[in-house]
Amino acid sequence: MTEAERRRQLARLCDEEGYVAGGFHPFLSEASVLGAPCTSKAASHRRYREPDNLRPDGSEIAWPVPYWFVDVGCSLVLLLLAAVDAGLAAGLASFPQDRLEVPRDLLDLPAEVLPIGAVAIGHAALDLPSPSLQRHCAVGGVVHRECW
User: Fold this and answer.
1) What is the pLDDT of residues 10-20, one digit of tens each?
2) Does residue 131 belong to any structural domain of this protein?
3) What is the CATH number of the domain that holds 88?
4) Residue 116 sits in which domain range?
5) Cα–Cα distance measured from residue 117 to residue 9, given in angstroms and rounded to the nearest whole number
């Protein structure tokens, strides 16, 4: 979305005030574009009930994890990387758990669609670096070889 008032409303729903109080730039309401990545359990099940995804007996594959969240996560990473590749900045803010129904109304989403957050895309605020960029961890803390 590019409409200023809708961006401000979505930023409020993501508790931008809390981000700003924590030292962040108001990156949501001031972004050039806000996107709202969404997922759908029902759409995922519809896809995996298509003939090329069924078991030989015609039943749906029982996946061990809710892949609709994996799918939206992969899509989100691609969006973030595309923004960076275009020379832009991008960041994700999530909706507080108690507000998941509110963005549905603002975005006019169907009942089966679940928004997972808001993605801000625009030019970086170079004068106010993100506090999260100040944190880092050694590769050994997140990469393990052969076993944990």
Assistant:
1) 999 999 998 88
2) yes
3) 3.40.109.10
4) 4-39+66-141
5) 13
Tell me the pLDDT tens digit for each residue of 66-109. Answer: 989 999 999 999 999 999 999 998 999 988 877 666 778 889 99
DSSP the chain: ---HHHHHHHHHHTTHHHHHHTT---TTTTSSEEE--EE-HHHHHHHTTSGGGB-TTSPBP--SS-HHHHHHHHHHHHHHHHHHHTT-EEEEEPPPGGGTHHHHHHHT--TT-EE--EEEEE---TTS--HHHH----GGGT--SS--
User: Considering the domain boundaries, does residue 120 fall inside one?
Assistant: yes
In a domain, 17, yes or no: yes
CA distances to 67, 89, 125 from 74, in Å: 10, 18, 26
Within a domain: 27:
yes
- What would the two tokens of residue 84 be? 């960076």
Structure tokens at 87: 């020379």
Q: What is the tens place of the pLDDT at every residue in 31-60?
A: 999 999 999 999 999 988 898 888 999 998
Domains contained in the chain, number: 1
Length in residues, the chain: 148
